[in-house]
Please model this.
Amino acid sequence: MKDIVQTDRAPAAIGPYSQAVTFGNLVVTSGQIPLTAQGELVAGGIAEQTEQVIQNLRAVLAAAGTDLDRVVKTTVFLADMNEFAAMNAVYEQHFAAPYPARSTVQVARLPRDVRVEIEVLAERH
Model:
């Protein structure tokens, strides 16, 4: 059975989806973009936006009973692949070896014209 995860420590869904869903011991998050919990877009470039996205993911994962250490797969969506190195510098501050599997793709456009969106698959404790 799937359960819906919702927290006010991350931005509310801006469409017909959930912040995350649990299924057994798995947690699947929706993509997080660099909005504060109040729904405000974070100022700054890719580094600041990536940091906010990861903080949002932390909050959603905590509400689901897990954390970044239990992430097994991430998918990173970038508006500009030229910003990969700057995004990766922030990303690697939050994930430790053994690192999760990851896909990174450049997309034509992201919601609210942000620079980065990240979704994760994690295991609950």
In short: The chain has one domain: 2-123. The helical segments are 46-63, 84-91.
